[in-house]
Amino acid sequence: MSKKEMAPINYKGTDEQLHDALLDRGLFIPQFDGKFDRKRAIRALQNWETTHPDRQDRKCRVVFNYSRHANANSKYAEGCLNGDKKYFPYDVEVEVSENFLKECMDRAEEIGYVNQKDDRGHMTSTQQVTKTKIYPYTFLGYVEDKPEPKEPEVIKNSISDNF
To answer: Which DSSP letter does residue 131 get?
Structure first.
């Protein structure tokens, strides 16, 4: 298996180059007020470089557990990172890329609304973000690279060679 070589990160490059570097590494694209947030993008890429010295996207073995979030009636834990949407069945061992697991599933938040009365008796609705894990999972370890199967050795038998 040959892995795709990633281009080195050019921190002084254009916003498009930083955006592409984030996509190549499967990282969240930070935005502020609907615009690309360069400072947070550089920080995310620097964090990634310190935690991934080998620069390879490892596969993790995990089991997603049921949770009590709004979409709990679904049979799947679903996540989307930079347009890459994936579904994982609950209570089954699956292989997930480490970047997708950390950047998407660990960052998932539940957004709810709370209705309250103000001082004048008017109902107001405020947004409330829950910081609990929406998709809890059990980490089973990393997928080991399987060695390529060797061809069986042919042992010459002196008796069979005579026939």
So the answer is: -
Give Cα 101 to chain centroid, integer Å: 3
The pTM assigned to this predicted structure is 0.49
Q: Could you tell me if 27 and 103 are in contact, meaning their C-beta atoms sit under 8 angstroms apart?
A: yes
pLDDT digits (tens, 9 = 90+) for 54-94: 656 678 899 988 876 646 567 888 888 777 788 888 889 99
Whole-number Å distance between alpha carbons of 25 and 3: 12
119 shares a domain with 79 = yes
Same domain, 76 and 133: yes
Structure token digits, residue 84 = 């890459």
Start-end of H helices in the chain: 15-24, 38-51, 98-100, 158-161
Residue 36 to residue 97: CA distance in whole angstroms = 25
Q: DSSP code of 69?
A: S
